[in-house]
Amino acid sequence: MPTPNKYPKEFRERAVRMVAELDEPGALRRVSEKLGVNRETVRYWVKNAPASRGGKRGLS
């Protein structure tokens, strides 16, 4: 049985939006620090966000 997500879907979507809105170097770090989430976790959310899968380059 898969483990439940630690963070609600809305929280993850908000983090992805925040990174996209900043659109600057260090955005992942700033958002992850503000939300208290590991930077690699936020990077994973951004990479796997629906907009990233539509052929657009993922944020890094």
Rg from alpha-carbon coordinates: 11 Å
Q: Compute the average pLDDT.
A: 86
Q: What's the tally of helices?
A: 4
Number of strands: 0
Structural class by secondary-structure content:
mainly alpha
Q: Structurally, how many domains make up the residues?
A: 1
Low-confidence stretches: none
- What would you call the shape? globular
Query: What is the end-to-end distance?
Result: 31 Å
Order of helices and strands: HHHH
How helical, in percent, are the residues?
55-70%
The main β sheet shows up as:
none
The amount of beta strand, in percent, is under 5%
Sum this structure up briefly.
Helix content is 60%, strand content 0%.
